[in-house]
Amino acid sequence: MTAADSATQAEGATRADSATRVDAARIRPTVILGAAFAVALVGVVIYALISGNARHLESGDPFPGTFTATADVVGYFLGFLAAALTLGGLVFIITASNPDEHGSIDVTGYRAHLMLGRLSIGWAVLSWLMVSVAAADASGTTPWRLVGEGFLGQGIGVSEAAVAWIVMAVCATVIAVLIRFSLAWMMHVVLLIPAVIAMVALPMASNAGQGPNHDYNTSLGIGFSLAVGLSLGFRVAWASAPRIESDTARTAVSRRSGLILVLSDAVAFVYALGLIAFLLPARYAFDTAFGIAAIILLVLLAVALGSSVRDYRAVRSGDVDDEAGRRIVTAGAVLMMAALACWTVMDTRVAPGLLAHKFSAWDVFLGYELPGPATTWTLATFWRPDLLIGVAAVVAAILYLFGVRRLRCRGDEWPVGRTISWVLGCLVVVVVTGSGVRAYGSAMFSVHMAEHMALNMFAPVLLVLGAPATLALRALPAAHGDAHPGPREWLLRVLHSKVTAVLSNPIVALLVFVLSLYVVYFTGIFGTLTRYHWGHVLLTVHFIIVGYLFYWVIIGIDPGPRRIPFLARIGLLFAVMPFHAFFGIALMTMSTVVGDKFYSELMLPWVTDRLHDQWLGGAIAWGASEVPVVLVVVAIVAQWAKVDRREANRGDRHADTYEDTELDAYNAMLDELSKSRR
To answer: Does residue 2 register a pLDDT over 70?
Structure first.
């Protein structure tokens, strides 16, 4: 054998050994995660069998039999796990992929894409089957008997869990269908909407949405569910993803992923701590299954948070390689899967704090007691801060100020008016969602309409004038070379996507802004949503987004689809006014009360005439729309004048340049003529 043959053989052996190590690194996380899932599933099954009739004695429901009771708990674990894997997987695909020129994801996110495509089918089938199981569990019978005797509809009607499973099933079906037909990066962004809804569906039908302080608990439950789902699903997708070849790109993705896990783990721990504080009195911490599971949950979340912080620091300092990082991520995924099993135990039985409390009508419908009639003083002083939207508004203001500071440190200017506008907009959201306006708005239609107007027509105007996207594009660093795209590139893709182009079309924005009023209040939607705090959260998010979209089309500063002329903007604004006026008049002249079932069951002692309260709400809707219209008109006129001045200055510079050029040419011609005559 020659030296060259020996070298070739050695090189081949080295490559084979390297490939073996890579394959082992790929397989090992899968095996570990599979084993962790099996152990967690067995633990949940054993708990479901041991608990027996205890869960149903606590809730007062008849025992449906061992099969139904066990299937209900196991189905919760599997459904919540599938939602978590989907949510975290989508976020990983969005943040770790480097889309090509057609906007399709690359090989880094493709494995997670395949996983979600297969998972979503089983998830959808499971969710549809669990509808009958949840209905049967609440009815004290078996699914086949409930369906066979034709009582499935009645069973769903008495089971909020069954309705939650329907919501999850619809979302899972949408994801299963759409993800199989597109590799587009933007499609995965859009699929985040049904993934988020599915993630919070089951917890909202359980302890978090019940009893005293359920306004706090609902916000905490939503935040916890999204954070723990993101943490688990992201870790699983990251651990099973192929190795990124570029060192620069791999480092950037690792740092970005580490930061995502630190933030999600921190939110999960803090919000879980808040939930447990409300739902678990200290005396029940060690002698109930709920209490023991809660303690284990907090320990697991604390360890996962410590692990993610240590991993993030190691990645930033370069002290950990790719294989070691995957092992750390896999270990964190095992911890979060165990935490999910603990949460399943907690959320499938009645919390001790609810069992130990004597319920009142206000506990059931509001979660708190109002101090008396709605006055200026009570609206201003009775505070129940929104732990989800209010916190999000505060974070948005802080991030905005951080971006402004970054520009100033770099020597760039940023208009003070935009900063003031954004901060005021965030302040309006915090005050409206956390003060007596929200507290009384959940109980009185008139105050609710004032809340609606502030969130739909006033706060969005201020937020749009703050130009957050423009600030982000200027403050965020751009990806260079072979680095994966970062937040700046993601924002640009969203702003210039077809989805954004459709939603920001003036006609579409107008129709959504106007029709949402009539669809929400003149159908059964408002009566259904106003019963639950998660319904108020959904309405709040809807009001802000719809209002922001409409005013972005009219007075938006941020880049996006092509802007319409200023006269058309004014016309679009005034086209909305008759619809708002008619909406207010319709409320004032109706002979039936919107959401009457809820308001009649609440029975506020100072609201003796619900029709009059609705008349007042209609008057507020009619009159309150004038203030934002004036503000928007002023903004349009100011922007129009600014554009005209800019165009005039540009024309003057062009004219000066044109005249100078013509004069030079004329002088040159005269000089040539004089030379020829000589």
So the answer is: no
Cβ atoms within 10 Å of 480's Cβ, excluding its own: 7
- The count of domains in the chain is 2
- C-alpha 112/C-alpha 107 separation (Å) is 9
∠ at Cα 231 (228, 236), nearest 5°? 125
Query: What separation in angstroms does the CA of 428 have from each of 383, 390, 438?
Result: 14, 10, 12
Please report, as a single letter, which amino acid is at residue 560: G
The mean pLDDT of 482-499, rounded to a whole number, is: 86
Domain span holding position 122: 22-359
- Burial class (CB within 10 angstroms; exposed 0-12, middle 13-18, buried 19+) of 263: middle
Q: Say yes or no: 343 and 403 in one domain.
A: no
Residues 6+ apart with CB under 8 A from 139: 62, 64, 146, 151, 154, 155, 158, 159
**670 in any annotated domain:** no
Q: Are residues 194 and 336 in the same domain?
A: yes
**Exposed, middle or buried by CB within 10 Å (0-12, 13-18, 19+), for 41?**
middle
Task: Identify the CA nearest to 85 among candidates 127, 130, 120.
Answer: 120
Percent of the chain with pLDDT over 90: 50
In order of 106, 263, 431, 482, 677, the CA distances from 253 in angstroms are: 14, 15, 37, 12, 75
Average of per-residue pLDDT across 467-496: 87
Helix (H, G, I), strand (E, B) or coil at 466: coil
Distance CA 219, CA 535 (A): 11
Selection from 75-89, 107-121, 280-294 with the highest mean pLDDT:
75-89
Write the pLDDT tens digit of every residue in 71-85: 999 999 999 999 999
Start-to-end Cα distance in the chain: 92
Which among 196, 186, 191 is positioned nearest to 105, based on CA atoms? 186
Contacts of 345 (CB under 8 A, 6+ apart): 44, 47, 289, 290, 293
Please tell me the distance from the alpha carbon of residue 527 to that of residue 504, in angstroms, as a whole number. 29
Tens of pLDDT, residue by residue over 631-644, are 888 888 888 887 76
Q: Give long-range contacts, CB 8 A cutoff, 24+ apart: 416-424.
A: 417/465, 418/465, 418/466, 418/467, 418/471, 418/557, 419/466, 421/462, 421/463, 421/465, 421/466, 422/397, 422/462, 422/463, 422/465, 422/466, 422/467, 422/468, 423/397, 423/466, 424/462
One domain for residues 136 and 192: yes
For residues 602 and 447, the answer to whether their CB atoms sit within 8 Å is no
Last residue of a domain, one of 359, 389, 407: 359
Mean pLDDT calculated for residue range 93-104: 88
* pTM reported for the whole predicted model: 0.88
Cβ neighbors of 33 (< 8 A, separation 6 or more) are 236, 239, 240, 330, 333, 334, 337
Mark whether 452 and 306 lie in a shared domain: no
- The full 3-state SS of 142-202, as one line of letters, equals CHHHHHHCCCHHHHHHCCHHHHHHHHHHHHHHHHHHHCCCCCEHHHHHHCHHHHHHHHHHH
- Among 583, 474, 476, 460, smallest CA distance to 519 is for 583
* Full DSSP string of 390-401: HHHHHHHHHHHH
The answer to the question of residue 661 being in a domain is no
